[in-house]
Amino acid sequence: MATSEPKAPETAEPPTESQVVANPEQYIKHPLQNRWALWYFKNDKSKSWTENLRLISKFDTVEDFWALYNHIQQPSKLGFGCDYCLFKDGIKPMWEDDRNKLGGRWLMTLNKQQRHNDLDRYWMETLLCLVGESFDEASEDVCGAVVNVRPKGDKIAIWTSNCQNREAIMTIGQNYKERLNLPIKALIGYQSHDDTSSKSGSTTKNMYSV
Length: 210
Known about the structure:
The protein is an alpha+beta fold. The chain has 6 helices and 8 strands. The mean pLDDT is about 90.
């Protein structure tokens, strides 16, 4: 017998009352533990650093994250000098922010070949680690993540709030390395923002490494 309602797949479980919203065909979204903001930086030398930094969007549900992720360009398609920054809402992606200034970052530098082979996959896993709170209690120390697209080699970093909080930092670094499925011999290092801002990147020492 014909019916005006769409037929659900046989394998689908019927929605519970709490899942049904005003539109019976639409389900509630799945909330994330934190609200996040995605920023985009384009290096226009005619503008100041802060003028080059632009807020793209904020989200706090799984569905809105994927809608945003699928709408924007992958890092490998960005021009040199461009960045994406994903930070908890209320934290700006700069060293001077109160939540960042005492912290540091786990930094991974990729070679030119990895831009085509690994960059997009590593960045997606980094985002999933953040929005999915993948570092257990240490996730509270996470401020955000940054991907830098550069001619000499791209960089991905996870920023944390306190460079002296060794236990949380090591938990984040070890779990992050496992999530990216990096070889054991491939070391990633943690640097304080204070050291990074006062020295050139090539001479910044690692406080920790995994």
